[in-house]
Amino acid sequence: MTDSADRPRSDATRARLLDAATAAFAERGFHGTTTRDIAEAAGMSPAALYVHHKSKEELLYLISRSGHENTLRIITEAIESAGDPAAALRAVVRDFAAHHAQGHTGARIVNYELAALTPAHHAEIRDIRHRIQHAVRELVERGAEAGVFDVPDPSIAAVAVLSLGIDIARWYRDEGRWSPEDVAEHYAAIALRIVRAH
Amino acid sequence: MTDSADRPRSDATRARLLDAATAAFAERGFHGTTTRDIAEAAGMSPAALYVHHKSKEELLYLISRSGHENTLRIITEAIESAGDPAAALRAVVRDFAAHHAQGHTGARIVNYELAALTPAHHAEIRDIRHRIQHAVRELVERGAEAGVFDVPDPSIAAVAVLSLGIDIARWYRDEGRWSPEDVAEHYAAIALRIVRAH
DNA sequence: GTGTAATGACTAAGCGCTTGCTTATTGTGT
DNA sequence: ACACAATAAGCAAGCGCTTAGTCATTACAC
After folding, report:
1. pLDDT tens column, B158-172
2. pLDDT tens digits, B101-141
3. Cβ of A28 and B31 within 8 Å?
4. Shortest distance, CA A187 to any CA of chain B (angstroms)
5. Which nucleotides in chain C lie closer than 7 A to a protein CB?
6. Residue of A nearest to B34 (CA)
7. Do B35 and B47 touch, CB atoms closer than 8 A?
8. Fewer Cβ close by (within 10 Å): the C or N end of chain A?
9. A81-84: long-range contacts at Cβ-Cβ below 8 A with a sequence spacing of 24 or more?
10. Which ipTM value was assigned to this complex?
11. How far is A8 from chain B (nearest CA, A)?
Protein backbone atom coordinates (compact mmCIF):
# COMPACT_ATOMS: atom_id res chain seq x y z
CA MET A 1 0.00 0.00 0.00
CA THR A 2 1.36 3.31 -1.10
CA ASP A 3 -0.93 5.87 0.45
CA SER A 4 -4.46 6.05 1.83
CA ALA A 5 -7.29 5.25 -0.59
CA ASP A 6 -7.66 2.94 -3.55
CA ARG A 7 -9.19 5.34 -6.08
CA PRO A 8 -8.81 8.71 -4.40
CA ARG A 9 -9.57 11.14 -7.20
CA SER A 10 -12.16 9.10 -9.03
CA ASP A 11 -14.37 8.55 -5.99
CA ALA A 12 -14.18 12.18 -4.98
CA THR A 13 -15.15 13.25 -8.49
CA ARG A 14 -18.06 10.82 -8.60
CA ALA A 15 -19.30 12.17 -5.29
CA ARG A 16 -18.98 15.75 -6.51
CA LEU A 17 -21.08 14.93 -9.58
CA LEU A 18 -23.68 13.19 -7.43
CA ASP A 19 -23.84 16.14 -5.04
CA ALA A 20 -24.19 18.59 -7.90
CA ALA A 21 -26.91 16.44 -9.48
CA THR A 22 -28.76 16.17 -6.17
CA ALA A 23 -28.81 19.93 -5.68
CA ALA A 24 -29.89 20.55 -9.27
CA PHE A 25 -32.59 17.83 -9.43
CA ALA A 26 -34.03 19.00 -6.10
CA GLU A 27 -34.22 22.62 -7.23
CA ARG A 28 -35.36 22.34 -10.84
CA GLY A 29 -36.40 18.70 -11.22
CA PHE A 30 -34.82 16.01 -13.39
CA HIS A 31 -36.15 17.32 -16.71
CA GLY A 32 -35.40 20.92 -15.73
CA THR A 33 -31.76 20.10 -15.18
CA THR A 34 -29.22 19.72 -18.02
CA THR A 35 -26.09 17.62 -17.96
CA ARG A 36 -24.22 20.87 -18.53
CA ASP A 37 -25.74 22.30 -15.32
CA ILE A 38 -24.48 19.33 -13.35
CA ALA A 39 -21.01 19.34 -14.88
CA GLU A 40 -20.63 23.08 -14.35
CA ALA A 41 -21.74 22.86 -10.71
CA ALA A 42 -19.17 20.10 -10.21
CA GLY A 43 -16.52 22.28 -11.87
CA MET A 44 -15.96 20.07 -14.88
CA SER A 45 -16.58 19.90 -18.60
CA PRO A 46 -19.90 18.47 -19.88
CA ALA A 47 -18.15 15.31 -21.07
CA ALA A 48 -16.66 14.56 -17.65
CA LEU A 49 -20.07 13.36 -16.47
CA TYR A 50 -19.88 10.45 -18.90
CA VAL A 51 -16.45 9.36 -17.67
CA HIS A 52 -18.04 8.43 -14.35
CA HIS A 53 -21.67 7.67 -15.20
CA LYS A 54 -23.54 6.00 -18.03
CA SER A 55 -26.28 8.59 -18.32
CA LYS A 56 -28.10 11.44 -16.65
CA GLU A 57 -30.79 8.96 -15.59
CA GLU A 58 -28.17 6.82 -13.85
CA LEU A 59 -27.36 9.77 -11.60
CA LEU A 60 -31.04 10.04 -10.69
CA TYR A 61 -31.24 6.30 -10.07
CA LEU A 62 -28.17 6.26 -7.80
CA ILE A 63 -29.50 9.21 -5.78
CA SER A 64 -32.99 7.72 -5.59
CA ARG A 65 -31.82 4.23 -4.63
CA SER A 66 -29.47 5.26 -1.85
CA GLY A 67 -32.10 7.68 -0.55
CA HIS A 68 -34.75 4.97 -0.44
CA GLU A 69 -32.39 2.45 1.15
CA ASN A 70 -31.52 4.98 3.85
CA THR A 71 -35.18 5.65 4.54
CA LEU A 72 -36.03 1.94 4.78
CA ARG A 73 -33.10 1.36 7.14
CA ILE A 74 -34.12 4.28 9.37
CA ILE A 75 -37.64 2.91 9.71
CA THR A 76 -36.55 -0.68 10.26
CA GLU A 77 -34.02 0.26 12.92
CA ALA A 78 -36.51 2.52 14.69
CA ILE A 79 -39.06 -0.30 14.89
CA GLU A 80 -36.50 -2.85 16.06
CA SER A 81 -35.05 -0.56 18.71
CA ALA A 82 -38.42 -0.03 20.43
CA GLY A 83 -40.53 -2.41 22.50
CA ASP A 84 -44.20 -1.54 22.42
CA PRO A 85 -46.00 -0.16 19.33
CA ALA A 86 -46.39 3.32 20.83
CA ALA A 87 -42.67 3.70 21.47
CA ALA A 88 -41.95 2.25 18.04
CA LEU A 89 -44.32 4.66 16.28
CA ARG A 90 -42.84 7.57 18.19
CA ALA A 91 -39.32 6.52 17.14
CA VAL A 92 -40.32 5.90 13.52
CA VAL A 93 -42.03 9.24 13.06
CA ARG A 94 -39.30 11.12 14.92
CA ASP A 95 -36.49 9.65 12.81
CA PHE A 96 -38.48 9.71 9.56
CA ALA A 97 -39.41 13.37 10.04
CA ALA A 98 -35.91 14.40 11.11
CA HIS A 99 -34.48 12.62 8.08
CA HIS A 100 -36.85 14.42 5.72
CA ALA A 101 -36.20 17.83 7.27
CA GLN A 102 -32.44 17.44 7.51
CA GLY A 103 -32.09 15.85 4.10
CA HIS A 104 -34.95 17.65 2.37
CA THR A 105 -32.87 18.11 -0.78
CA GLY A 106 -32.34 14.42 -1.34
CA ALA A 107 -35.81 13.60 -0.04
CA ARG A 108 -37.36 15.83 -2.68
CA ILE A 109 -35.77 13.69 -5.38
CA VAL A 110 -36.73 10.47 -3.59
CA ASN A 111 -40.39 11.44 -3.42
CA TYR A 112 -41.05 13.59 -6.46
CA GLU A 113 -38.81 12.40 -9.29
CA LEU A 114 -39.89 8.77 -9.55
CA ALA A 115 -41.56 9.25 -12.93
CA ALA A 116 -38.26 10.14 -14.60
CA LEU A 117 -36.70 6.75 -13.81
CA THR A 118 -36.51 4.03 -16.47
CA PRO A 119 -39.23 1.37 -16.10
CA ALA A 120 -36.72 -1.14 -14.68
CA HIS A 121 -35.30 1.32 -12.17
CA HIS A 122 -38.79 2.56 -11.29
CA ALA A 123 -39.87 -1.00 -10.50
CA GLU A 124 -36.86 -1.55 -8.27
CA ILE A 125 -37.48 1.67 -6.35
CA ARG A 126 -41.20 0.96 -6.06
CA ASP A 127 -40.35 -2.29 -4.33
CA ILE A 128 -38.40 -0.45 -1.63
CA ARG A 129 -41.29 2.00 -1.20
CA HIS A 130 -43.69 -0.92 -0.71
CA ARG A 131 -41.45 -2.32 2.01
CA ILE A 132 -41.45 1.07 3.74
CA GLN A 133 -45.24 1.35 3.56
CA HIS A 134 -45.68 -2.22 4.70
CA ALA A 135 -43.49 -1.71 7.75
CA VAL A 136 -45.47 1.31 8.92
CA ARG A 137 -48.87 -0.20 8.17
CA GLU A 138 -47.93 -3.36 10.04
CA LEU A 139 -46.80 -1.32 13.02
CA VAL A 140 -50.09 0.56 13.19
CA GLU A 141 -52.06 -2.66 12.79
CA ARG A 142 -50.06 -4.33 15.53
CA GLY A 143 -50.83 -1.44 17.89
CA ALA A 144 -54.51 -1.54 16.98
CA GLU A 145 -54.76 -5.30 17.55
CA ALA A 146 -52.92 -5.00 20.87
CA GLY A 147 -55.42 -2.35 21.93
CA VAL A 148 -52.81 0.34 22.55
CA PHE A 149 -53.91 2.29 19.47
CA ASP A 150 -57.48 3.38 18.79
CA VAL A 151 -57.89 3.81 15.02
CA PRO A 152 -60.98 3.42 12.81
CA ASP A 153 -58.82 2.33 9.84
CA PRO A 154 -55.16 1.39 10.45
CA SER A 155 -54.37 1.51 6.72
CA ILE A 156 -55.42 5.10 6.27
CA ALA A 157 -53.79 6.11 9.55
CA ALA A 158 -50.52 4.62 8.27
CA VAL A 159 -50.87 6.49 5.00
CA ALA A 160 -51.46 9.72 6.88
CA VAL A 161 -48.45 9.23 9.15
CA LEU A 162 -46.14 8.52 6.21
CA SER A 163 -47.71 11.36 4.26
CA LEU A 164 -46.91 13.86 6.99
CA GLY A 165 -43.25 12.88 6.95
CA ILE A 166 -42.89 12.83 3.17
CA ASP A 167 -44.47 16.24 2.72
CA ILE A 168 -41.79 17.75 4.96
CA ALA A 169 -39.45 17.42 1.98
CA ARG A 170 -41.72 19.82 0.09
CA TRP A 171 -42.14 22.60 2.62
CA TYR A 172 -39.07 22.46 4.89
CA ARG A 173 -36.56 25.31 4.52
CA ASP A 174 -33.15 25.53 6.19
CA GLU A 175 -33.78 29.21 6.95
CA GLY A 176 -37.12 28.47 8.64
CA ARG A 177 -37.82 28.78 12.33
CA TRP A 178 -37.94 25.07 13.11
CA SER A 179 -34.92 22.80 13.37
CA PRO A 180 -35.21 19.22 12.10
CA GLU A 181 -35.41 18.14 15.76
CA ASP A 182 -38.29 20.56 16.46
CA VAL A 183 -40.27 19.15 13.56
CA ALA A 184 -39.38 15.58 14.54
CA GLU A 185 -40.60 15.95 18.14
CA HIS A 186 -43.82 17.73 17.19
CA TYR A 187 -44.58 15.23 14.45
CA ALA A 188 -43.94 12.27 16.74
CA ALA A 189 -46.50 13.70 19.17
CA ILE A 190 -48.95 14.31 16.31
CA ALA A 191 -48.59 10.70 15.12
CA LEU A 192 -49.41 9.39 18.59
CA ARG A 193 -52.51 11.60 18.60
CA ILE A 194 -53.58 10.26 15.21
CA VAL A 195 -53.56 6.68 16.47
CA ARG A 196 -54.79 7.77 19.94
CA ALA A 197 -52.00 5.90 21.73
CA HIS A 198 -52.43 5.20 25.43
CA MET B 1 -76.58 38.15 -29.70
CA THR B 2 -76.40 35.51 -32.36
CA ASP B 3 -76.34 32.20 -30.57
CA SER B 4 -75.26 30.91 -27.19
CA ALA B 5 -71.67 31.87 -26.34
CA ASP B 6 -69.48 34.76 -27.32
CA ARG B 7 -66.55 32.75 -28.64
CA PRO B 8 -68.00 29.24 -28.93
CA ARG B 9 -65.31 27.31 -30.71
CA SER B 10 -62.39 29.25 -29.35
CA ASP B 11 -63.41 28.68 -25.73
CA ALA B 12 -63.91 24.98 -26.26
CA THR B 13 -60.53 24.71 -27.94
CA ARG B 14 -58.83 26.67 -25.18
CA ALA B 15 -60.37 24.34 -22.64
CA ARG B 16 -59.24 21.29 -24.58
CA LEU B 17 -55.69 22.60 -24.64
CA LEU B 18 -55.82 23.36 -20.92
CA ASP B 19 -57.16 19.88 -20.16
CA ALA B 20 -54.47 18.26 -22.27
CA ALA B 21 -51.79 20.38 -20.59
CA THR B 22 -53.15 19.53 -17.14
CA ALA B 23 -53.01 15.79 -17.82
CA ALA B 24 -49.52 16.01 -19.32
CA PHE B 25 -48.02 18.30 -16.66
CA ALA B 26 -49.47 16.12 -13.90
CA GLU B 27 -48.02 12.96 -15.39
CA ARG B 28 -44.60 14.04 -16.61
CA GLY B 29 -44.10 17.48 -15.08
CA PHE B 30 -43.80 20.83 -16.85
CA HIS B 31 -40.27 20.29 -18.17
CA GLY B 32 -41.03 16.68 -19.10
CA THR B 33 -43.90 17.79 -21.33
CA THR B 34 -43.46 19.20 -24.83
CA THR B 35 -45.78 21.60 -26.61
CA ARG B 36 -46.20 18.88 -29.23
CA ASP B 37 -47.42 16.46 -26.53
CA ILE B 38 -50.08 18.94 -25.48
CA ALA B 39 -51.20 19.77 -29.02
CA GLU B 40 -51.39 16.11 -29.99
CA ALA B 41 -53.43 15.22 -26.89
CA ALA B 42 -55.81 18.05 -27.79
CA GLY B 43 -56.04 16.70 -31.34
CA MET B 44 -54.41 19.68 -33.02
CA SER B 45 -51.24 20.73 -34.77
CA PRO B 46 -48.29 22.00 -32.69
CA ALA B 47 -48.88 25.57 -33.86
CA ALA B 48 -52.51 25.61 -32.71
CA LEU B 49 -51.35 26.02 -29.13
CA TYR B 50 -49.99 29.47 -30.00
CA VAL B 51 -53.25 30.62 -31.56
CA HIS B 52 -54.84 30.45 -28.09
CA HIS B 53 -51.95 30.94 -25.66
CA LYS B 54 -48.83 33.05 -25.50
CA SER B 55 -46.51 30.31 -24.28
CA LYS B 56 -46.24 26.92 -22.66
CA GLU B 57 -45.60 28.67 -19.34
CA GLU B 58 -48.87 30.58 -19.71
CA LEU B 59 -50.73 27.27 -19.75
CA LEU B 60 -49.03 26.30 -16.51
CA TYR B 61 -49.83 29.68 -15.00
CA LEU B 62 -53.53 29.50 -15.94
CA ILE B 63 -53.83 25.99 -14.52
CA SER B 64 -51.94 26.92 -11.37
CA ARG B 65 -53.84 30.15 -10.75
CA SER B 66 -57.32 28.72 -11.16
CA GLY B 67 -56.33 25.74 -9.04
CA HIS B 68 -55.06 27.96 -6.25
CA GLU B 69 -58.10 30.23 -6.44
CA ASN B 70 -60.39 27.22 -6.16
CA THR B 71 -58.49 25.94 -3.15
CA LEU B 72 -58.60 29.30 -1.38
CA ARG B 73 -62.32 29.59 -2.06
CA ILE B 74 -62.99 26.08 -0.74
CA ILE B 75 -61.19 26.86 2.50
CA THR B 76 -62.75 30.29 2.96
CA GLU B 77 -66.27 29.00 2.36
CA ALA B 78 -65.74 26.06 4.70
CA ILE B 79 -64.62 28.37 7.49
CA GLU B 80 -67.48 30.81 6.93
CA SER B 81 -70.13 28.11 6.79
CA ALA B 82 -69.25 26.72 10.22
CA GLY B 83 -69.75 28.18 13.66
CA ASP B 84 -67.25 26.91 16.19
CA PRO B 85 -63.57 26.19 15.35
CA ALA B 86 -64.03 22.41 15.63
CA ALA B 87 -66.85 22.35 13.06
CA ALA B 88 -64.87 24.74 10.88
CA LEU B 89 -61.72 22.61 10.99
CA ARG B 90 -63.75 19.50 10.22
CA ALA B 91 -65.33 21.23 7.21
CA VAL B 92 -62.01 22.66 5.99
CA VAL B 93 -60.15 19.37 6.12
CA ARG B 94 -63.06 17.42 4.64
CA ASP B 95 -63.44 19.75 1.66
CA PHE B 96 -59.70 20.30 1.22
CA ALA B 97 -59.00 16.56 1.24
CA ALA B 98 -61.92 15.73 -1.05
CA HIS B 99 -60.77 18.40 -3.47
CA HIS B 100 -57.22 17.03 -3.54
CA ALA B 101 -58.38 13.44 -4.01
CA GLN B 102 -61.01 14.22 -6.63
CA GLY B 103 -58.84 16.70 -8.49
CA HIS B 104 -55.48 15.07 -7.81
CA THR B 105 -54.35 15.71 -11.38
CA GLY B 106 -54.72 19.47 -11.14
CA ALA B 107 -53.60 19.47 -7.51
CA ARG B 108 -50.32 17.84 -8.50
CA ILE B 109 -49.55 20.81 -10.74
CA VAL B 110 -50.70 23.28 -8.10
CA ASN B 111 -48.38 21.85 -5.48
CA TYR B 112 -45.38 20.50 -7.35
CA GLU B 113 -44.81 22.68 -10.43
CA LEU B 114 -44.39 26.09 -8.81
CA ALA B 115 -40.68 26.31 -9.67
CA ALA B 116 -41.41 26.33 -13.41
CA LEU B 117 -43.44 29.55 -13.23
CA THR B 118 -41.88 32.88 -14.22
CA PRO B 119 -40.77 34.99 -11.22
CA ALA B 120 -43.77 37.33 -11.61
CA HIS B 121 -46.28 34.49 -11.83
CA HIS B 122 -44.54 32.63 -9.02
CA ALA B 123 -44.89 35.68 -6.77
CA GLU B 124 -48.59 36.00 -7.58
CA ILE B 125 -49.23 32.33 -6.82
CA ARG B 126 -47.18 32.46 -3.65
CA ASP B 127 -49.44 35.22 -2.40
CA ILE B 128 -52.51 33.00 -2.76
CA ARG B 129 -50.68 30.18 -0.96
CA HIS B 130 -49.88 32.52 1.92
CA ARG B 131 -53.56 33.43 2.21
CA ILE B 132 -54.45 29.72 2.34
CA GLN B 133 -51.85 29.01 5.02
CA HIS B 134 -52.90 32.07 6.99
CA ALA B 135 -56.55 31.06 7.00
CA VAL B 136 -55.79 27.62 8.38
CA ARG B 137 -53.24 28.82 10.92
CA GLU B 138 -55.68 31.47 12.15
CA LEU B 139 -58.41 28.88 12.52
CA VAL B 140 -56.20 26.60 14.62
CA GLU B 141 -55.04 29.54 16.74
CA ARG B 142 -58.62 30.65 17.29
CA GLY B 143 -59.55 27.17 18.49
CA ALA B 144 -56.54 27.04 20.78
CA GLU B 145 -57.30 30.45 22.31
CA ALA B 146 -60.95 29.51 22.81
CA GLY B 147 -59.82 26.37 24.62
CA VAL B 148 -61.62 23.98 22.28
CA PHE B 149 -58.32 22.80 20.78
CA ASP B 150 -55.39 21.50 22.80
CA VAL B 151 -52.21 22.02 20.77
CA PRO B 152 -48.61 22.59 21.90
CA ASP B 153 -47.87 24.70 18.79
CA PRO B 154 -50.79 25.90 16.62
CA SER B 155 -48.44 26.87 13.77
CA ILE B 156 -46.97 23.44 13.34
CA ALA B 157 -50.37 21.81 13.78
CA ALA B 158 -51.69 23.99 10.96
CA VAL B 159 -48.73 23.02 8.77
CA ALA B 160 -49.37 19.34 9.49
CA VAL B 161 -53.08 19.60 8.68
CA LEU B 162 -52.41 21.36 5.36
CA SER B 163 -49.58 18.96 4.64
CA LEU B 164 -51.86 15.95 4.98
CA GLY B 165 -54.26 17.37 2.43
CA ILE B 166 -51.62 18.45 -0.06
CA ASP B 167 -49.85 15.11 -0.04
CA ILE B 168 -53.07 13.41 -1.13
CA ALA B 169 -52.33 14.82 -4.59
CA ARG B 170 -49.13 12.74 -4.63
CA TRP B 171 -50.45 9.34 -3.53
CA TYR B 172 -54.15 9.28 -4.49
CA ARG B 173 -55.12 6.96 -7.38
CA ASP B 174 -58.53 6.75 -9.02
CA GLU B 175 -58.24 2.95 -9.08
CA GLY B 176 -57.49 2.79 -5.35
CA ARG B 177 -59.82 1.40 -2.71
CA TRP B 178 -60.81 4.75 -1.15
CA SER B 179 -63.22 7.24 -2.69
CA PRO B 180 -62.51 10.95 -2.28
CA GLU B 181 -65.30 10.99 0.33
CA ASP B 182 -63.70 8.13 2.28
CA VAL B 183 -60.41 9.99 2.44
CA ALA B 184 -62.17 13.26 3.29
CA GLU B 185 -64.07 11.79 6.24
CA HIS B 186 -61.07 9.94 7.66
CA TYR B 187 -58.82 12.95 7.28
CA ALA B 188 -61.34 15.26 8.95
CA ALA B 189 -61.36 12.92 11.95
CA ILE B 190 -57.57 12.79 11.95
CA ALA B 191 -57.34 16.60 11.93
CA LEU B 192 -59.63 16.82 14.96
CA ARG B 193 -57.38 14.32 16.73
CA ILE B 194 -54.27 16.35 15.88
CA VAL B 195 -55.71 19.45 17.58
CA ARG B 196 -57.41 17.33 20.28
CA ALA B 197 -60.80 18.99 19.73
CA HIS B 198 -63.43 18.62 22.42
C1' DG C 1 17.98 5.90 -12.91
C1' DT C 2 16.19 6.21 -17.76
C1' DG C 3 13.41 5.52 -21.96
C1' DT C 4 8.98 3.87 -23.34
C1' DA C 5 4.54 1.93 -23.32
C1' DA C 6 0.18 1.66 -20.97
C1' DT C 7 -3.45 3.73 -18.22
C1' DG C 8 -7.10 6.61 -17.15
C1' DA C 9 -9.06 11.26 -15.86
C1' DC C 10 -10.42 14.93 -18.42
C1' DT C 11 -11.74 18.09 -22.37
C1' DA C 12 -12.79 20.64 -27.06
C1' DA C 13 -15.58 20.03 -30.55
C1' DG C 14 -19.49 18.60 -32.40
C1' DC C 15 -23.32 15.14 -34.00
C1' DG C 16 -28.09 14.08 -34.53
C1' DC C 17 -32.18 15.28 -32.65
C1' DT C 18 -35.73 17.87 -30.03
C1' DT C 19 -37.16 22.01 -28.06
C1' DG C 20 -40.38 26.31 -27.84
C1' DC C 21 -42.00 29.23 -30.88
C1' DT C 22 -42.75 31.94 -35.62
C1' DT C 23 -43.99 32.72 -40.34
C1' DA C 24 -46.46 32.27 -44.45
C1' DT C 25 -50.35 30.27 -46.07
C1' DT C 26 -54.77 27.91 -46.39
C1' DG C 27 -59.39 26.87 -44.89
C1' DT C 28 -64.06 28.34 -43.07
C1' DG C 29 -68.11 30.57 -41.25
C1' DT C 30 -70.78 34.85 -41.78
C1' DA D 1 -65.27 40.60 -48.55
C1' DC D 2 -63.75 39.87 -44.26
C1' DA D 3 -62.11 38.06 -39.84
C1' DC D 4 -59.80 34.67 -37.77
C1' DA D 5 -59.03 29.73 -36.60
C1' DA D 6 -55.84 26.40 -37.97
C1' DT D 7 -51.87 24.38 -40.26
C1' DA D 8 -47.36 23.08 -42.83
C1' DA D 9 -42.95 24.15 -42.71
C1' DG D 10 -39.20 25.54 -40.48
C1' DC D 11 -35.83 28.44 -37.51
C1' DA D 12 -32.50 29.22 -33.80
C1' DA D 13 -31.23 27.34 -29.67
C1' DG D 14 -30.52 23.79 -26.64
C1' DC D 15 -30.54 18.90 -25.55
C1' DG D 16 -28.08 14.18 -24.18
C1' DC D 17 -24.36 12.02 -25.47
C1' DT D 18 -20.02 10.66 -28.44
C1' DT D 19 -15.62 11.10 -30.55
C1' DA D 20 -10.92 11.92 -30.83
C1' DG D 21 -7.47 13.46 -28.52
C1' DT D 22 -4.36 15.82 -24.51
C1' DC D 23 -2.04 15.28 -20.46
C1' DA D 24 -0.27 13.60 -16.11
C1' DT D 25 0.73 9.48 -13.74
C1' DT D 26 2.13 4.72 -13.37
C1' DA D 27 4.58 0.18 -14.83
C1' DC D 28 8.42 -1.85 -16.04
C1' DA D 29 12.33 -3.70 -18.97
C1' DC D 30 17.07 -2.58 -19.00
Report:
1. 999 999 999 999 999
2. 999 999 999 999 999 999 999 999 999 999 999 999 999 99
3. yes
4. 8
5. 8-14, 18-24, 30
6. A31
7. no
8. N
9. A84/A146, A84/A148
10. 0.91
11. 36
Query: How many CA atoms are closer than 13 Å to the CA of B122, on its beta-carbon side?
Result: 8
Q: What residue of A is the nearest CA neighbor of B109?
A: A112
Distance from CA of A144 to the nearest CA of B (A): 15
What residue in A sits closest to B172 (Cα-Cα)? A159
Selection from B88, B169, B161 nearest residue A194 by Cα: B161
Encoded amino acid at B44, one letter: M
* Reduced 3-state DSSP string for B88-156: HHHHHHHHHHHHHHHCHHHHHHHHHCHHHCCHHHHHHHHHHHHHHHHHHHHHHHHHHHHCCCCCCCHHH
Sketch out chain A's domains with CATH numbers.
1-53 (1.10.10.60), 56-194 (1.10.357.10)
